[in-house]
Amino acid sequence: MLTPEAVRLSKMISEKVIDFKELCEKLDEEIASRAPSGRWSPKEIVSHLCGPAGTGLMPTITPFLEEDIPRLDIEAENHFFSEKRANMTFDQLLDEFEKEYDRIAEFVAGLSEEQLGRKAHIPMLKDSPLGEYPTLAEWIQAIGEYHVGMHIDHMREILQALEVTSGIPRKQMSQESHTISPSGL
User: Fold this and answer.
1) What are the phi and psi torsion angles at 135 (to 5°)?
2) How far apart (Å, rounded) are the C-alpha atoms in residues 95 and 148?
3) Cα 64 from chain centroid (whole Å)
4) Which residues 6+ apart lie within 8 Å of 123 measured at CB?
5) How far apart are CA 167 and CA 35, in angstroms?
6) Please, which residues have CB within 8 angstroms of residue 42's CB and are 6 or more apart in sequence?
7) Other C-beta atoms within 10 Å of 22: how many?
8) Which of 4, 57, 64, 137 is in the most buried spot, having the most CB atoms within 10 Å?
9) Do residues 59 and 80 lie in contact, with contact meaning Cβ atoms separated by under 8 Å?
10) Cα atoms in the 13 Å half-sphere on the side-chain side of 111
């Protein structure tokens, strides 16, 4: 039986994917490969959101259900930009991103309230509002709402630094720019 919280989390992830892809839809390969000095390129941002090559983000989710309070050591600030991903086109990377988050959204949609309430130990989150023992629901919320949302803002900032406005929807161009660095998740 579908639970309201699982459905809400799944829908939130799907909506964030749409928002991110909309922001990137008109970027060509040349722009996607450029980066402001000392910053990530759009391709590196997408690679980061995909998680480690070959495994993605599911290894940070499934242990909640497989073990009692598993320890998850999250590798923050890694763009996971492997040689394979560097050789992919921007569209291919976006497809990988969409498939990864579709897989997460589909998985989450089928979770029970009890499963969503299971906890893990994530030391990296010790000083965050979640604390170092988040529930699976809180972790999914962090991945979708916070992490993807933060990188939507990050992508806007990078595109503005590259003086690209064609890929930024008008409603977003007028929003105040926030300084977002690829830190945290």
Assistant:
1) -80, 165
2) 15
3) 19
4) 71, 73, 132
5) 16
6) 24, 27, 31, 32, 33, 34, 90, 155, 158, 159
7) 14
8) 64
9) no
10) 26
Give the model confidence (pLDDT) of 104-161 as tens digits.
999 999 999 999 999 999 999 999 999 999 999 999 999 999 999 999 999 999 999 9
- What single-letter DSSP state applies at residue 168? S
Q: CA 15 to CA 9: how far, in whole Å?
A: 10
Residue showing tokens 């130990």: 121
Token couple for 95: 């497809």
Rounded distance, CA 56 to CA 60, Å?
A: 9
Question: For residue 13, what is the enclosing H or E element?
Answer: helix 4-24
Position 16: which residue type? K
* pLDDT tens figures, 46-89: 999 999 998 999 999 999 999 999 999 998 889 999 999 999 99
Instruction: Please count the other Cβ atoms lying within 10 Å of the Cβ belonging to residue 107.
Output: 17
d(CA 119, CA 136): 6
Crossing angle of helices 4-24 and 42-50, in 10° steps, is 160
Residue type, 38: G
The gap from C-alpha 146 to its chain's centroid, in whole angstroms, comes to: 8
> For tokens 């003086």, what's the residue?
163
Which of 111, 184, 85 has its CA nearest to residue 142? Answer: 184
Please give the model's pTM, rounded to 2 decimal places. Answer: 0.86
